UniProtKB/TrEMBL annotation:
Lineage of the species this protein comes from: Bacteria, Bacillati, Bacillota, Clostridia, Eubacteriales
Statement: the UniProt record of this protein carries the keyword Cell division: yes
GO biological process: cell division
Name this polypeptide is given: Cell division protein FtsL
Transmembrane portions of the chain: 53-73
Alphabetically ordered keywords of this record: Cell cycle, Cell division, Membrane, Transmembrane, Transmembrane helix
Length: 167
């Protein structure tokens, strides 16, 4: 008899209708349960990895958002400070220009020719001549207090002053 490759069926030349020899294999339930558990564990591990990846991506997104927000806030503060500096520079420049204009006016007003012209034309002053000069001797006490009036006021009291004012 010629034997061929044996797999699930034994192949025999000739008529085998009366006695086929089939291999019967029993279903292995334990192996099936192990495969089922392994598949379940693999799915759980895959889901856990996906959750970790999602949480990591969420953390990265949150971090990027926070850093972006902080950067924008800081840039806005810098922009406000730059605007205030520019405003102060403009104010300083205007004050400097105003001071220069005032200095020019002071120089014009303080010149002797300007003062003389203003005094003669605006105020009607004239230059003094020798006949207009008056001399006063300041060595004497021209402004002494009248002691009689002072003693009189001291003698009169408050009551006397009120009485004099009413009658």
């Amino acid at each position: 008899m010629n034997k061929l490759k044996l797999e699930e069926y034994d192949y025999i030349k000739g008529n085998t209708a009366l006695s086929p020899k089939r291999k019967q294999t029993e279903f292995d339930w334990e192996k099936y349960e192990q495969l089922k558990k392994a598949k379940k564990q693999r799915n759980i591990r895959i889901n856990e990895k996906r959750k970790k990846i999602r949480s990591g991506v969420g953390q990265v997104i949150t971090l990027v958002f926070a850093l972006g927000f902080a950067t924008i806030m800081r840039d806005s503060q810098v922009y406000k400070i730059q605007n205030s500096i520019a405003d102060l520079d403009n104010k300083i420049n205007s004050v400097v220009a105003e001071n220069e204009a005032l200095n020019v006016e002071i120089l014009k007003a303080s010149s002797l020719s300007s003062i003389k012209n203003n005094a003669e034309n605006g105020l009607g002053m004239t230059t003094p001549k020798k006949e207009n000069v008056i001399k006063i001797d300041l060595s004497e006490n021209n402004f002494s207090l009248n002691e009689n009036n002072l003693n009189k006021d001291m003698k009169n009291g408050l009551f006397e002053n009120i009485k004099d004012a009413l009658w």
